[in-house]
Amino acid sequence: MNNITPFLLATMLLAGSTCSNAGSLPYDAWRLGFSASDYMEVWIETADVVDMKGQVYRRAMSGVSAIQTPENNKGNPKGWPKKSGWGKGKYVTNADLPKKIYVRWQSLVEPQTYQVGIDIAESTREIMCTSEKTYCAATGKWTTGYRKAIAIGLAPGGIVKVWVLGPCLTPLEVMRVKAEVDPRGPYEGKSGGQYDALSEISRMHVKKFGVPYGSW
Description:
Elements (H helix, E strand, L loop, with lengths): L5 H8 L15 E8 L5 E10 L4 E9 L23 E6 L4 E10 L4 E8 L2 H7 L3 E5 L4 E5 L3 E7 L3 E8 L2 E10 L1 E2 L18 H10 L7
Parallel strand pairs: 1-9
Antiparallel strand pairs: 1-4, 2-3, 2-5, 5-6, 6-12, 7-8, 9-10, 10-11
């Protein structure tokens, strides 16, 4: 579901020029990052990007996502943070803005393997190439920047949430989708059904409190 209101989008478009169909970015590269809720560990097998020019970038991101696993069960895995972080990720260099992002990952607390194709809406690309003037608390100055990062949250049950954000700019939620189970299992069926190991801290938390389905 796209949570960008027409009024907000119109206001942002007036703030700066757009590049969503121009084939040239106002910055060197955009960033792709991933996060998971406390203790709800995931292993990203691959995140592939198809840009607006039709170029495919295999494994633009893979491996672990950003996550916190505080000891003594002091973390809270329910829901998403009020302000999304950038997540763990990489800059997708030499690419145009994304048209589609395909993600296949292991939800280690279940365990289950999910896959999803995330279609990036035109309105999201408009946001990514619209400049915005903002006050930056880190520097104490006003600056003009872009939301040049896509942050993706992965949760048990195949729940996926997508934000766009930039330095000193408020993250904007643009999408929530549900992935499908990959019937092949982990590593496309090449591991004999064997999942990557869950950390002991997360294992003990899930054993005591379970998985908070429905909170994401």
